[in-house]
Amino acid sequence: MIQPLKTLQSSLSRLFGQMAVAPSRLAEASTAEYQFGAERSMGTVGHVSFVGAGPGDPDLLTVKALKALQTADVILHDRLISDEILSLAGRQARLVDTGKTGFGPSMPQSEINAHILAEVRAGNRVVRLKSGDPTVFGRLDEEIDACTAAGLAWDIVPGLTAASAAVASIGQSLTKRGRNKAARFLTGYDMEGFADQDWRSLARPGEVAAIYMGKKAARFISGRLLMHGAAADTPVTVVANASRPDQRVLATTLADLPDALTEAELTGPALTLYGLAPREAQPTLQTVLQQEFA
User: Fold this and answer.
1) Which CDD domains does UniProt cross-reference here (predicted)?
2) What is the DSSP string of 8-32?
3) In this structure, is residue 3 part of a structural domain?
4) Same domain, yes or no: 110 and 180
């Protein structure tokens, strides 16, 4: 039977009204509404959620991640997590800084693993909060393996990785029809493994790569790619503090990358986008330090 138009409009209005959730109500999510993917029995069974905090902008936090923060007893977080995101934790949550930063001082991984196990065994709802997406260069497997070996329950709440935020900030995409059918995610942190990359194929025209923690390895990256045939004027964009108020964007070329980074003195975590330049007249860029493409 076909409903009258007004009746149908009324039904849709009620449906979407039930689906809409105001940000203020999300901040009041209760334990009963979110159980970390597993039921707790009499408050004695602990659980750990490996949660992605995204690149830093709290507006890019997922709803599921927010619920996890609101209901956690303990939050073990990396140093790169922004204060704005940590402020969303429930009042009952105890915050523990694990001090994880690229090339900086940090709590040893074995100690982090032990801390996770101790808190879960104590019956706590634990959030292991990682910058970006925990599945991308987050040493996630080591922590999951420790939990699995101890017979403890865990789940993963994915987050927005820095590469997505960085490429969006320059008005580009990681893949484009007719340009590249794949994009590589690399890390400049592990130089031993980094030296074994397939530089020849990456040096081909049209290739795109997102390089995490690549500032210190910039001269090595530039040299290797040029040595394997990459064009000196290949565009390279470095986005520091992607999505945050202090975001800075450095547009340069492969040949000029090391010196450009030295002159720019970028601070904070940076994502290097090889093969991409900011789209012309992109209005969302907060700061562009444009180098001469010559």
Assistant:
1) SUMT
2) HHHHHHHHHHHH---HHHHTT--GG
3) no
4) no
Nearest Cα to Cα of residue 122 among 98, 155, 88, 150:
150
User: Looking at residue 103, what is its pLDDT?
Assistant: 52
User: Which domain-ending residue is among 157, 182, 199?
Assistant: 157
Mean pLDDT of 201-226: 94
Q: Rounded distance, CA 187 to CA 116, Å?
A: 25
Domain residues for the domain of 253 are: 162-290
Within-domain flag for 247: yes
| Residue 36, pLDDT above cutoff 80 | no
Q: Of 129, 157, 185, which closes a domain?
A: 157
Q: Which of 65, 271, 292 is nearest to 168 (CA)?
A: 271
Answer yes or no: do 240 and 280 share one domain: yes
User: Looking at this protein, which amino acid is placed at residue 50?
Assistant: F
pLDDT score of 273 more than 80: yes
Write the single-letter amino acid at 279: R
Q: Is residue 15 part of a domain?
A: no
pLDDT band, very low/low/confident/very high, at 5 (cuts 50, 70, 90)? very low
Tokens of 272: 């290097």
pLDDT at 9 (0 to 100): 47
Q: Annotated catalytic sites, by residue?
A: 78, 100
Nearest of 239, 182, 187 to residue 211 by alpha carbon: 187
DSSP 153: -
Instruction: Look up residue 267 and give its DSSP letter.
Output: -
